[in-house]
Design brief:
alpha/beta; eight-stranded mixed sheet; four-stranded antiparallel sheet; 11 helices; binds adenosine-5'-triphosphate; binds magnesium ion
């Protein structure tokens, strides 16, 4: 029943900067199934956003995908029946037509921080600018015009039809009087309304997947709850998958069926949300869960820092990169051997020497 939509295999993304090479994503492997919500958690700087951007071919310069593949299983009609065509996103031209069709059309994206979405960051000609232009509100243009443009970029319909879809979408995300609000400028809306508009834009093309990178971080709790409800509701009606990136463990517990825990560019544990919360196996996951006071309750706190510092990206520890901070550190092993992906339960995987019998 669970059919893969996006398969990320051994993905590597590097930033070559003046001081050296940052391995922002270092061999990440995971699958997102159709209609499924996958949560991605981990401390700041561990590679969550860069992974999301790689899926849309939007890694900013000087970043480069240096290894692995991202397979998008696209359903297409052929001779009256439906077949699956597999596209390797890492091989697409980042400015080419194919990725532009996928970006914003088949895969939508909502960024963190709605306030910053008011900054005009559109730079014509750059693929990042283009994607940003599609998913960030430009302050000097009416909301409806921006929505119509996005919808028309991905669907062959008239302006009038696109405007009707835009109004309907605004209504569905709970914007009052959408027939009037469609002609508002972004600054005339509240922060919560702007974020809803962003969601409306991302969802207006009925994407197969929504990448939500801390979509509600800047919002207050009641608006956050409404937006999460809207996302879930729309997910059911269009069978959309969601990649949900967040620091808020309460929110991820509510939204995600499965969770990947990331540390220093690697997925270190993956399991159902229930198992991650109740039977975490990787010492890093356990430390993360301890770092918030009430798991399961709606905590507004970001993950508190756990013991020790996140390592210097130019000078990564040998063996398991978590070993200098790990309460289960086994000298002579963890500092020497790179742990491999090990099955620790029925649908539960971890990257830790505790489970490798070494
Ligand atoms: N444009 C860039 N230039 C250089 N390094 C970058 C750039 N963007 C990201 N990085 C580096 O890549 C690594 C992963 O960053 P990323 O933004 O994916 O972290 P994150 O997990 O999303 O963190 P946060 O939770 O704070 O959003 C970090 O070490 C970061 O410094
Ligand atoms: Mg991020």
């Amino acid at each position: 029943m669970s059919e893969p939509l996006i398969e990320v295999k051994d993905l590597k993304v590097q930033f070559n900067v003046r001081d050296g090479i940052i391995h922002a994503v270092d061999g990440a492997t995971f699958t997102i199934n159709r209609g499924q919500t996958l949560g991605i958690i981990g401390e700041s700087g561990c590679g969550k956003s860069v992974t999301a951007k790689a899926i849309l071919r939007m890694v900013p310069r000087p970043g480069k995908v240096t290894g692995g593949e991202i397979l998008y299983h696209r359903r297409i009609k052929s001779n009256g029946s439906e077949i699956t065509d597999i596209v390797n996103i890492t091989e697409l031209d980042p400015d080419g037509e194919e990725i532009r069709k996928i970006r914003g059309g088949e895969i939508g994206m909502i960024f963190q921080e709605p306030m910053s979405s008011l900054t005009p960051v559109y730079t014509a000609g750059s693929h990042i600018g283009e994607a940003v232009g599609l998913h960030r509100l430009v302050p000097i243009r009416k909301v409806g015009a921006q929505m119509v443009e996005t919808i028309q970029a991905h669907r062959r319909i008239s302006k009038q039809e696109a405007r009707e879809i835009a109004i309907d979408m605004l209504r569905r995300v709970g914007i009052p009087k959408p027939e009037q609000r469609v002609d508002a400028y972004p600054h005339q809306l509240s922060g919560g309304q702007r974020q809803r508009v962003m969601i409306a834009i991302a969802l207006s093309c009925e994407p197969k997947m929504l990448i939500a990178d801390e979509p509600t971080t800047a919002l207050d709790v009641s608006i956050e709850a409404q937006i999460l409800d809207i996302m879930r509701e729309l997910q059911e009606t269009v069978d959309m998958a969601i990649m949900f990136i967040t620091h808020n463990l309460g929110v991820v517990a509510e939204m995600a069926e499965e969770i990947c825990v990331m540390y220093m560019g690697k997925i270190v544990e993956r399991a159902s949300a229930v198992e991650i919360f109740y039977e975490p196996q990787h010492p890093y996951t356990r430390a993360l869960l301890k770092s918030i006071p009430h798991v399961g309750k709606k905590s507004r706190e970001r993950l508190a820092s756990i013991k020790g510092m996140v390592p210097d990206p130019f000078n990564l520890p040998s063996g398991c990169v978590f070993h200098p901070r790990c309460p289960e550190y086994m000298p002579g092993k963890c500092d020497r051997i790179v742990p491999s992906w090990t099955q620790v339960g029925e649908n539960h995987w971890a990257r830790c020497l505790l489970y490798e019998g070494v």
